[in-house]
Amino acid sequence: MPQEEPAYRTAYEKDKSPICPETGIDLSGYSAAGVRAHAENLFPTYAQENFSDEAKARKKILLEIAAEKG
């Protein structure tokens, strides 16, 4: 039986909650630069050609969260 996705995977898409879709960390206290660093740590640019579609989508969400912070 397949395991259900954790709620944090879709929190941003549902209500723009600044929750990391990869780790579930609440990013509300992070600066824009901090969110970008978190995204780069999880999904390094040098490896992006090997990312799955899910990984690309999660990094995009993180960068959207960073953009909203300024």
Structure write-up:
By secondary structure, the chain is mainly alpha-helical. Helices cover 47% and strands 0% of the residues. It has one domain.
What labels would you give this structure?
70 residues, globular, mainly alpha
Strand and helix map with partners:
Blueprint: H1 11-15, H2 32-42, H3 53-69
Helix pairs in contact: 2-3
Summary of the model, kept short:
Helix content is about 45%, strand content about 0%.
Number of strands: 0
Helix content: 40-55%
What ranges have pLDDT less than 50 throughout 5 or more consecutive residues? none
Main sheet record: none
Radius of gyration, rounded?
A: 12 Å
Shape: globular
**What is the count of DSSP helices, taking H or I runs of 4+ residues?**
3
The structure class reads mainly alpha
First-to-last CA distance? 42 Å
Strand content: under 5%
- The overall pLDDT, averaged over residues, is 96
SSE series: HHH
Number of domains: 1
